[in-house]
């Protein structure tokens, strides 16, 4: 490993931690933890989803997703509905309160994300995406 790669790794990890902390702080300002916000955002952007698919998309074990869904249901932000054709499948969707909340907070959250990338030009953001994908794919490959 050369010195520049080690330096790049330190910068990547520090930047990742800082970005994660800003995003989590923003999410918590709405009374939600990161997982709850991610589930609400998925339902807001994609509509009704089977619970199993939600877990796969937000990378949570089935026991964890059940807990998160229950918490969001207790907050009356989502509704569970059993599939009429297959009673083994349960769907989740935003309640009216959940949709109203996301319509209010998602634009603010998107603004916070834009603020993080403010120092970068559009071309720099695109280049960052490409670079991070390369590094991420290689790291995933090394885990196989």
Automatic annotation (TrEMBL):
Keywords: DNA-binding, Transcription, Transcription regulation. The keyword GTP-binding does not apply. Gene3D superfamilies: Winged helix-like DNA-binding domain superfamily/Winged helix DNA-binding domain. SUPFAM superfamilies: Winged helix' DNA-binding domain. It comes from the Bacteria. Residues 5-137 form the HTH marR-type domain. PROSITE patterns: HTH_MARR_2. The keyword RNA-binding does not apply. InterPro entries: HTH_MarR-typ, WH-like_DNA-bd_sf, WH_DNA-bd_sf. GO terms for molecular function: DNA binding; DNA-binding transcription factor activity. This is MarR family transcriptional regulator, 2-MHQ and catechol-resistance regulon repressor.
